[in-house]
Amino acid sequence: MYQDKVIAVVIPAYNEEKLVGRVIETMPEFVDHIIAVDDASEDQTLQVVESFLPRLQNRLLVIHHDTNQGVGAAIISGHQKALEIGADISVVMAGDAQMDPIDLPTLLDPVVSKLCDYSKGNRFFGGEAWKNMPRVRFFANAGLSMLNKIASGYWHIADPQCGYTAISSTALRKINLASIRKRYHFENSMLFHLNIENLKVMDVPIRAVYGIGESSGINEIWAFFSFAIVLQKIFIDRLIIKYVIRDFHPLVFFYLFGFIFFLVGSLLGIYLLLFRTFVGLVQSTSAIFAAFLFTSGLQLTLFGMLFDKDYSQNSS
Length: 316
Description:
12 helices; alpha/beta
């Protein structure tokens, strides 16, 4: 136990035969339940995990998916099992050993003390991420962090793709686990569901661990555009659910007219620029109108973001 709280650590693993054993071996003693979820690995991941059962039979639980369902599905299976066995806090620690167990108390403390419902690691607090993280991944994460702030409504949260998290059992019961995205967009979808339930989320500093033999099959450029599309949908869904269905708020109008004016002003400005370049002079009134739409749209959008940030801070 940790400060009189029952702790469960979920280890989602897919083809992690080289490193999942290290994760289990270095698990702190105060962790009551280790829930390893093999997501239909094609290597010896399941066998490596099961080899620890004789030593950890009172702490280690093994879940095996017959078909690969995605990292999000593995985490959800682990969280559901944590609720079944009565854990007070459920932690996610990936099977690739990139999450330092030394940081676990830092992650648990805000949830234990009820400062938040969900704490998540942030690898950008210090300068280690810049030194240790591959450059393409660093800038992709930075860009996604900005998009995620807008989409999720958690403007104080950065490094949304970091999966080192801790959540209280109370918060887990409030959100609809079945509706959370099951694959690489899991973390963003999780923040969306936390926000619409007005649950408090907190960033905590953790160390970025790289160069230990882990591998990533994600193309960063593809991932950025893929996540951008998903975040756009999350943003629209959040506005509709939170600010139209559950509690109507005028910021919806700021966002709506802001986007319309900004888009029309941008397209009109591009058209006038091309017309001026290849055809001839344009009327000054047309240029002024395009500039008016562009600046008005930008201002309305920024006001919408400001209201959104203020509302989210006061409601969580």
